[in-house]
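User: Quick one: structure for sequence A, then sequence B.

Assistant: Sequence A:
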Amino acid sequence: MAACLRFVVGSAIGCLLGCGTPAAEDPEKPNGTGGSAGQVTGGAAGNAGSGNPSGAGGSAGVGGAAPGVVLEPQPECEYPGVACNGSCLMSTESANGCTFMTPSLISIDTMVVSAGDVYLSATPLPGPHRIAGDSLAATPLDTMGATALSSLAVAGENLYYLKPGFAGDGILRVVPIGGGTPSDLASDFDQGSDLMVIGDRAYFAASLPGMGALPALFWVPLAGGERQQTELTSVGRARANATQLVVSWNGNIKTAPLPDGAPQLIVMTDFELTREGWWIDDTFVYWQTDSDYKRSPLTLVGATEEQGEIVTTLPEGMLVAADAGAELVLTATIENRTGVFTMPLTGGVPQKVGVVGADVVRAARLDANYVYVFAQAGVLRLER
């Protein structure tokens, strides 16, 4: 994940999730919409069993009034205080359904939520940290120095995490969530991202020395063993559902069956999607075009934007910010305040969770009880 604060709709987890070299639409189109080397924290949560999906990412705020969206004015708070639901909160304070969970942070590298606990890598808290429930204390799980991470995934009693790597120094590690001695599962790669723990394997995108700058999808056994490469190459983003691995290089989306990732099927070509700008369930791939939230069957080969079915029309200025299993987090910004909403992945009416006094909410995650966002100076927990 050092932080670069690149903001792209649907993908700005600060550097948020690694911010590596901008990706191109395909290897022959060097000026594509870009993406970051680091991202996904655990695949499709409800289906892959790996915590929060990596879902990744946050969204850049959109200025101007959004018809249909009503956001209450928020107070101006003295830094590092953050406004949330009408109150100014300092670190560890709670009011009106909001809790300011962390000390002042500059940026988030990556964040994942599992069983009510938050795991993150941030500045100035690099390496994996755990905020256990209501303790609100960020405890380091691995003393890695100033290492920024690109992906986190929780499975069972373990946290898996990626140092993205440059010049072959990427590392995939595992450590017990209750604390213990970390161990390496894979090393010697670059641009490690999109970590997903599925069954007895950890999948991740990476480049190897000598293979060029374009990542491929690899897996390693959780019990230890040799790294294996799948047929899925040019991987800018990866997801998984109950039966498939799904990857994209921006809008060029490919699928391959679990567990080995072969053979691959090209589902979409020449879509102009941001790196974070698509989501899946077991049947469809979903994306947002302006205010249209659309879908196409994962079995429809060579689908085009025009063939996409409109699932719902979102209010102007509302953006999908992150996915977690069967749900989405959405944001809408009006005059330096951002509304946070949830909506089923399959569509419906967005439900407002809260309003944050910030003109951008960069990271978003959710579980059954809360939505977690990074805004202004730290992580806020909003009651649902």
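Sequence B:
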Amino acid sequence: MNLHAIQAAIRDVPDFPKPGILFKDITPILSDPRLFRATVDLFAERHRNTALDAIAAVEARGFLIGAALADRMGIGLIPIRKRGKLPFRTLEASYDLEYGSATLQIHEDALPRGARTLLVDDLLATGGTLAAAADLIERLGAKVIEIDVLIELSFLNGRARLGSRPVFAPLVY
């Protein structure tokens, strides 16, 4: 299974969630066990020799890739969720999206100081979501080793919001 097959399965949905947005739908990848396994393999192979303590994943599609990757690598998963979805004391960060604004939260005890953390999501657009998520991890005293996404919409220049943090995106549009 190659990257071309994964890319070919991504469905473009115009005007979702609002007019003018071309949504990259990964559900065809998720529903095909070979494609989903190949997607997780991309990230697992990349980090086979990386010392990681945890994978942090962003709600909601980041959870799907992040959970499978954490299981494959034998490390814990740290959920970063929208405001009001985590049951314990949290830290929060607000940010702008290409179609609105939102707030993310992480449990205040999610990661120990110095924890080497891989941050995972499905897509990098404007960078607001991932910048807020990385900020939360770093406010806990943990380290973001890399930010991994399946898809990057490079024309939105999201990497610029992520500063010097390394980013890996196998599919760039």
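The mean pLDDT is 96. The first helix runs from residue 3 to 9.

User: Thanks, that's what I needed.
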